[in-house]
Amino acid sequence: MIKAAALFALLSQSSPAAAFTSAPTTASRIRATSTIPSSLGASAAFSNEDLETAFFSIDIEASGSIPKASFADALADLGVVIDDSAADALFDKYDADRGGSIDLDEFKQLMSDPAMSGIKPQRDVKFAMDLFKKYDEDGSGSIDKGEFRAVANEIQADARRRSLISVAAAAIGATIVADYSQEYQWAQKNFRSLYIEPLAEETQNKAFPTALLSGDLDVAIAKTLGARGFTPANTIFAHSVCSDEVNNKDEQLVALMVNRWQEGFSLGGLAGLPFAGKSGFRAFLHHVPDEGKLLVCFAPHVGIDAAGKVGALQRDGQTKVSKACGAAVGAYGVISSKGAATTKPSGGNDDTDLFDPQLNTIVNLLEPRLGGIEKAVDPISFVTYQMYAIVRDLIDECVEGTPDVWDFANEVSIIGGIMINRYKGGDFFQPLSFETRVKDGSSKGEVIDLYDEAFGNKPDLVGVLGSEEAVANLYDRSKRAKL
Questions:
Q1: N or C: which terminus of the chain has fewer CB atoms within 10 Å of its end residue's CB?
Q2: Which residues, including other chains, have CB under 8 Å from residue 355's CB and lie 6 or more apart?
Q3: What's the pLDDT at 347?
Q4: Phi-psi map region of 64: left, alpha, beta (phi>0 left; psi -120 to 50 alpha)
């Protein structure tokens, strides 16, 4: 069963209409929750109809009210990230009848609050809701399978209606790159069960057991840092991820975070190593707002293909599977060919030319970290976790090796993990570290671990890496990698 906001969520994408035949026929109805775009505006910028549309879009249960328990999430969907106490205060202010929920009239008053200022109206919502009413023939407030088929038939009959063709993208996993929107993230998440690749999903759950969709990770980071006073106005964002184009799709993590923080400085080269070095980090540092904050996200990446092979990925427009990360797999191949490891990489061994200085560096840093790889569930998974540790150490070296960092910033927050590229179903991120460092007069700053607050317990990696010793070595920061 598809609710009205679900249809709007689908309208922002594009994909061939033939994808409608790809959806499984076993489920007769689809039910989902909804979000609305962060561009929805404050009351003064909306007509009464706009406000009703916005309210209906976040009224997940179609109950006519938003309960206090889900109020903070509704605000986050609107793009307003505040801590729980502030959300409770705002709720109590506008729950005029003290009924324990915000109804439509109270919502209209809420949208005029200064806390909602800066949000702008999104007229496409009105279009989506009108379109929803057209296909909700029985007026039930949801679209069942038969009514949804009518949408598909119209798409097939009229290719010029581009806005409707996009429904297919969510139905097959958005294999065509689409512009970022909250609606895309919603559709990607809630329709995954229709198009996931079972073997890839199984492998990911084993090798990267607590991985999050890119959109979910972005929200978790923003919520945690928002409570610490991080805003786009006082924060500058940098990323150290592999330069592979697969990591720069509009709807995936780097683009999501650049969009949220409104700009992004690139530190990364092959395999996500911060080849910009201390000079690049210093340049990034010098761009921070006065007495502002730094946010750095780093990650190596790895692909998982439809057959469940780690280190392989089918890319858009290609029928053959290629390597991801090619640099990490290639470096492991070089080391294997020298006899430093006994297990050959699953992705092949084509990248053995050490003329490339970045690959040469990766080989030199990776080789001493491969002890115990023969016990791992998969050699490329093991390699990828080692690449995470290498990048983490280099980022630490950039921060702590820049003596004037605290002359420019009062807080430095660093999120690290592994980006997991998937052909269908959206990319994921396995978080492994999240900390913030606060100016306290020392070169390192006061280190505060934010991981549990943002993500809960860390993943159990003993089965992945093959031993407790390997896990301990992964998290050991006493022997730091250096360029």
A1: C
A2: none
A3: 42
A4: left
Round to whole Å and give the CA distance between 192 and 211: 15
pLDDT at 376 over 50: yes
**Residue 240 pLDDT greater than 90, yes or no:** yes
The pLDDT-based confidence of 449 (bands split at 50, 70, 90) is very high
pLDDT at 155: 52
Sequence-separated (6 or more) residues with CB below 8 Å from residue 73? none
Q: Exposed e or buried b for every residue in 354-382, given b needs 16+ CB within 10 A?
A: eeeeebebbbebbbebbeebeebebbbbb
The tens digit of pLDDT for each residue in 275-306 reads 999 999 999 999 999 989 999 999 999 999 99
User: Smallest Cα–Cα separation from 286: which of 335, 323, 353, 238?
Assistant: 238
Hey, is 35 helix, strand or coil? coil
**pLDDT above 80 for 4:** no
As a whole-number percent, the residues of the chain with pLDDT over 90 amount to 49
Give the phi and the psi of residue 444 in degrees, each rounded to 5.
Answer: -90, -30
Task: Specify whether the CB–CB gap between 445 and 452 falls below 8 A.
Answer: no
- Tokens linked to 256: 């999501």
Alpha-carbon distances of 457 from 208, 450, 470, rounded to whole Å: 14, 11, 19
pLDDT at 260 over 70: yes
CB atoms within 10 A of CB 128: 25
Q: Which residue has the tokens 């793009």?
A: 79
**CA atoms within a 13 Å half-sphere pointing along the CA-CB vector of 133:** 7
Minimal CA–CA distance to 267: which of 281, 253, 255, 257?
281
Do the bridges between strand 292-299 and strand 409-422 make them parallel or antiparallel, or are there none, so unpaired?
A: parallel
Beta strands 65-67 and 292-299 are: unpaired
Cβ burial, residue 480 (10 Å; 0-12/13-18/19+): middle
Pairwise CA distance, residues 323 & 335, whole Å: 17
Rounded CA-CA distance 41/79 in Å is: 10
Kindly calculate the radius of gyration of the chain based on its CA atoms and give it in whole angstroms.
Answer: 24
Residue 108: name the closest of 61, 69, 53 by CA.
53
- Beta-ladder partners of 3: 142
The answer to whether 362 and 192 are in contact (CB under 8 A) is: no
77 in helix, strand or coil? helix
What is the C-alpha to C-alpha distance for residues 1 and 30, in angstroms, rounded to an integer? 4
Cα distance between residue 311 and residue 318, in whole Å: 16
Express each pLDDT in 111-140 by its tens digit. Answer: 888 877 656 545 555 555 566 666 666 666
